[in-house]
Amino acid sequence: MKNNMKVVGMGEALWDVLPEGKKIGGAPANFAYHVSQFGLDSRACSAIGDDPLGHELKDNFDHQNVKYYLQTVPYPTGTVQVELDPTGVPVYDIKENVAWDNIAFTPELEELAKETSAVCFGSLAQRNVVTRETINKFLDAIPEENEPLIVFDVNLRQGFYTKEILCNSMERCNILKINDEELVTVSRMFGYPGIDLQDKCWILLGKYNLKMLILTCGVNGSYVFTPGNVSFLPTPKVEVADTVGAGDSFTAAFIASILQGKSVKEAHDKAVRTSAYVCTQQGAMPVLPPEITGA
Fold first, then answer.
1. Which CATH number do you get for residue 166?
2. Domain membership flag for residue 262
3. Does a structural domain hold residue 293?
4. Range of 242's domain?
5. Number of domains the chain contains
6. How far apart are CA 87 and CA 277, in angstroms?
């Protein structure tokens, strides 16, 4: 990886309003934050409102040492009401027509794309045409010679996705990250519901010519599929505080490791240990201990 290359989380940056108070959230922001903890130059790219929540979000990014490109737009800063079910799994109520729905494609984003070695984006930020088009233009602007890792973290939320958005995103990415529940939904949508999870993964890997497919199955372990090979690791048993952001930390640790020249198996192991630790902490952006980051 070239020294000046950047890793980008593109999409929603928002406040998760949890029972114990509000915390910064949004999968791309979580991803960028955790990538930076592994020593890579990352950017959280999103939009905020010119309002107290927007100013506070920026202040928090500064405090967490998250580098960012945040547009200020005439829409409110995004919020999500998060209720935890009895097992600690979050249930979301995501407010609509907010700042991150309206990220514009700017010359600054085009310049950033030219220096990008990896980008992670999801389906949620594509619910509005403005941000959806910006994400696609950003992907178009990344030079092929960067050999970028383009990660589509499916991240299905409420009803904020369509088959067309999922198909386009899978065609645009070279690494797909999906969990077991999302895989069932996607398989039903794409018309192969009756086969087992692994076979579904092999179909998607081949159909979209992916370098890798990451499947997380909660307490039932995780898989990384590459052409002709599969890595499986069990999920460590830990005392769960909440699972908010655990998947994003998994993706971040995995991508950071691959960019640092680690094998798929090594990257997978780092991702499993990272996400297990995040589950033991409240909120999506805890500081990772040195035994995980290698710092």
1. 3.40.1190.20
2. yes
3. no
4. 6-286
5. 1
6. 17
> Using CA atoms, how far apart are residues 65 and 164, in angstroms rounded to an integer?
36
Run of H or E residues at 229: strand 229-233
Tokens of 214: 């990451």
Distance CA 171, CA 139 (A): 12
For residues 6 and 115, the answer to whether their CB atoms sit within 8 Å is yes
- Residue 295 in any domain: the answer is no
Q: Which amino acid is at 16?
A: D
Alpha-carbon distance 16 to 57, whole Å?
11
Q: Give the Cα separation of 109 and 137 in Å (integer).
A: 9
List strands edge to edge, sheet with 78-84. Answer: 21-25, 14-18, 78-84, 90-94
Interval 172-229: pLDDT, tens: 999 999 999 999 999 989 887 677 889 999 999 999 999 999 999 988 999 999 999 9
Q: Does any domain span residue 191?
A: yes
**What is the pTM (predicted TM-score) of this model?**
0.93
Phi, psi angle pair for 83, to nearest 5°: -110, 140
Q: What's the token pair of residue 106?
A: 């700017």
Structure tokens at 231: 């890595």
Whole-angstrom Cα distance, residue 214 to residue 201? 9
Q: What is the pLDDT of residues 19-69, one digit of tens each?
A: 778 888 889 999 999 999 999 999 999 999 999 999 999 999 998 888 999
